[in-house]
Amino acid sequence: MGRELNRLATKTVQALGKGKFCDGGGLWLTKADQRRGKWSFRFMMAGRAREMGLGIWPDTSLAEARRKAEDARAKTREGLDPILERDRARRDMRRNLHLLEDVARDAFEARKAELKGDGKAGRWFSPLALHVLPKLGKMPVIEVDQIAIRDCLAPIWHKKGDTARKAVNRLSIVLRHAAALGLDVDLQATEKAKALLGKSRAISRNIPALPWPEVPGFYESLSDGTVTHLALRLLILTGVRSAPLRFIREEQIDGDVWTIPAEAMKGRKGATESFRVPLSAEALSIIDAARRHSRDGFLFPSVRKGVISDATMSRLMERRGMEARPHGFRSSLRDWLAECTDAPHEVAETMLGHATGGAVVKAYRRTDFLEQRRALLERWAGHVTGGAGQVVKLAGAGK
């Protein structure tokens, strides 16, 4: 490489036409024509001639090209290959500049297979998308510390306690995912942030439930035979959650037993146990009435496509000025079991699909108390209907 430096001048570079021109010290300009060119640095490494691109002219000026060439020469004096060193620096930059929003989405994709409905039903990503990423999403994940998390969640910490708790838990999972990617993150950042935020003053509120003595009156009012009325009636009679009820299919019913598939039960995908629900005579009559509405195998289809939504049932109760919501009927049933029956705790909890006992107990217990639950649900149906099943007027009948 020539030792004479700075042979070119800015005006000279502008005037040069097509050709290759040396500025000295290994810096070359190759011009395609008078308007376009590229800078390169030529050097010897381990007995081999090497050439390193330094940028496009005129975007990269003569002065900038000289600075880059001097940096490269410094590397060669240390016995380092400037091309390899630049590639390593770029990899380190990409590694260290992972944005939180990108890592968060990657963590969600990796975890999705474990979540019910791929995380959509439970809106796993929502706390991050609504309360964390708008403020911290563009921050490199390695820079996310307890101060940033505290400042981000402070506005909701004492107002929306449950949401804030979910957000900080999801963020902790994201940071663990970042660590697994090899990023230098502070895994204790979320715990430190919680210490800075203090104990939340937000009051956790249970989903409002209709007191069990008032359920018969509401049940009786659901007499139009519409999909919404029938779905709410069966929800009340069985004590199941909204999702498996809304997605109930004809083939899941065998005689007087409804078997909910394992993947439809609350929890993670990959569950191995289905759940049997004994159907009272009243429940069977509701199912029979719902069959005339069935579409694509679903007993409770929506007007357009798919199945009835949870919001549809909730809106019916809301329009009536009720605070209670559909999910609350599980509490109504549970309170009735506690106050009006002698059902053992394990049986009452099983009626709601709750797991009871430790791992050892569950490993040895093989019963799901089907017959005990059948008798209790018949009694519950008797309470709900006032002692006798109510006549259901089929929607559209008599028109």
UniProtKB/TrEMBL annotation:
GO molecular function: DNA binding
Residues covered by the Tyr recombinase domain: 205-377
GO biological process entries: DNA integration; DNA recombination
Keywords noted in UniProt: DNA integration, DNA recombination, DNA-binding
Gene3D superfamilies for this protein: 1.10.150.130, Integrase, DNA-binding domain (3.30.160.390), Intergrase catalytic core (1.10.443.10)
CDD domains with a match to the protein in the record: INT_P4_C (cd00801)
Superkingdom field: Bacteria
Protein family according to the UniProt entry: Belongs to the 'phage' integrase family.
Protein name: Phage integrase family protein
